Amino acid sequence: MKTRVEEDPLGRRRIPSEAYYGVQTLRAAENFPVSGLKAHPALIWAYACLKKACAMANLESGALEPKLARALLQACDEARQGRFDRHFIVDVYQAGAGTSFNMNVNEVLANRALELLGRRRGDYAVVHPNDHVNMAQSTNDTFPTAVYAAVLRQAALLSPILESLAGAFRTQGRRWRKVVKSARTHLQDAVPITLGREFDAYAAAILAARRQLERRTRLLRSVPLGGTVAGTGVNACRGFRGKAVRHLARESALPLKPAGDMRLLLQSHQPLTAVSSALKELALELIRIANDLRLLSSGPMTGLAEIELPAVQPGSSFLPGKVNPSLLECLDMVCFQIVGRDVAVSLAAQAGQLDLNVMTPLSAYNLLDSLQMLINYLPVVESRCIRGIRADRARCRDYARKSLALAALLSPRLGYAAAAKIVQEARRRKVPAEQVVMERGCLKPGELDKLLDPSRWES
Fold it and tell me: With CB atoms 3.0 to 4.6 Å apart as the test, which of 42, 190, 269, 287 could cross-link to 183 if both were Cys?
């Protein structure tokens, strides 16, 4: 393998000639062979937008020579298109604050700019990763800014997916607005409701979680770019901060603005924990809904079986013909992981010390990967599960008529105590409450059907 020699403050190292990364990236790859997981493409994209914005601000101030700036701007455009993704080799678990990844970005862009200028990779006397690509910047301000931009972008991709999933539940709710069934509280019989109302409530839960996610991601619009080290802005020329953020907003098409207090955003992870918490809350709702659907479809002969899920794959290597709620089981596992990651993000937030929280790489990985799992999988759940659910209308109605809670509809007429005796007798004899009601002459023929008409009791 052909190599080139690069040097940093710790000495010389040989780098593969074809690599766009450099010596500091190589050291990080050797120091942190933790997971094999690499940066999310959205973070690479956000960092490339950021470096372009800073280069433009430095060009405007006269700090960056035009010819060099043009090469660097082109390198940034190519990087955000994903051209160099395989050269970002730093593990997601790395040195604190994201210094290793920032240098990975700086070296890739510097070496590509050198190529564009007709120079060899590693000729840092012409384009230097620190002096030119990282001009007026620090990992302190660039890493959290890039993370904010990346999370904003991915959350914007998730939002319409949640809207569509809620729409699928609403569609089923409309189909089943007159399908009467028994509600269950404490997993015991309760008053009659409709299957449509249950699915409407699932849609409402998803939309409520979506609104919370959108509200909290707005906290990410204020970014600390220009704060350099400890939010001081040292080594950045006058006006750099405003120019850089303005360019970043335009290049990323995100509504970004300079932070009111740059020190706050370098010390505190509160905006990230707010978004993580919103994802956790969404995950908890999805878990609850998935488990409801698993219960409602249980059986098919010995469970509730009020709904039938689409069969997507054989469910057992042992039991012939068995079909499992596989998609919903997978959704549970995805959401369990998101809940666990929220704990990790919370621990990272409280681990900030003095003028910098160095745990940002952990929060970045967990947030971006949680968002990506939902972006990838929720459309599958919607198309291959939710939209294909079928209701067993006869079984739903049969349960509603057999429910011991039917007596609750009679209590206004008979009184609570008399209705309770009907329930007690039905339980003792193990017969439907409807049978006891009819035997006692509490209802005339046809009156039960009127009681079970949802138009009489659903608001």
Answer: 190
pLDDT in tens, 229-285: 999 999 999 999 999 999 999 999 999 999 999 999 999 999 999 999 999 999 999
> Which range has the worst mean pLDDT, 51-55, 150-154, 277-281, 409-413?
409-413
What DSSP character marks residue 257?
E
Tell me the catalytic residues. Answer: 316
pLDDT, tens digit, 9 for 90 and up, residues 36-48? 999 999 999 999 9
Residue spans of alpha helices (H) in 184-303 = 195-217, 240-252, 262-267, 270-296
235 Rama class: left (phi>0) / alpha (psi -120 to 50) / beta: left
Token pair of 264 as six digits: 């706050």
Torsion of CA 28, 34, 39, 40, to 10 degrees: 180
Among 99, 103, 55, residue whose Cα is nearest residue 76: 55
The structure tokens listed for 391 are 């209701």
Contacts of the segment 413-420: beta carbons below 8 A, 24+ positions apart: 413/442, 414/442
Nearest to 133 by CA among 105, 101, 99: 105
Q: How far apart are the first and last CA of the chain?
A: 74
CA distance 301 to 203: 28
The pTM of this model reads 0.94
Domains of the chain (ranges; CATH) run 3-135 (1.10.275.10), 142-393 (1.20.200.10), 403-457 (1.10.40.30)
443 pLDDT higher than 70: yes
Q: What distance in Å separates the CA atoms of residue 438 and residue 446, rounded to the nearest whole number?
A: 11
Indicate the burial class of 74 (C-beta count within 10 angstroms; 0-12, 13-18, 19 or more): middle
Position 55, amino acid: A
Q: How far apart are CA 23 and CA 124, in angstroms?
A: 11
Taking Cα atoms as reference points, which of 228, 261, 230 lies closest to residue 244? 228
Tell me whether the omega of the peptide bond preceding residue 379 falls within 30 degrees of 0, making it cis.
Answer: no
Distance between CA atoms of 373 and 74, rounded to whole angstroms?
A: 32
**188 SS3 class:** strand
Q: What is the pLDDT of residues 117-132, one digit of tens each?
A: 999 999 999 999 999 9
**In 3D, which of 283, 375, 385 has the Cα closest to residue 334?**
283
Contact 380, 162 (CB under 8 A): no
Strands 11-16 and 3-8: antiparallel
Where do runs of H (alpha helix) occur along 89-190? 99-116, 139-175
Share in percent of the chain as helix, strand, coil (round to 5): 65, 10, 30
β-strands 257-258, 222-223 pairing = parallel
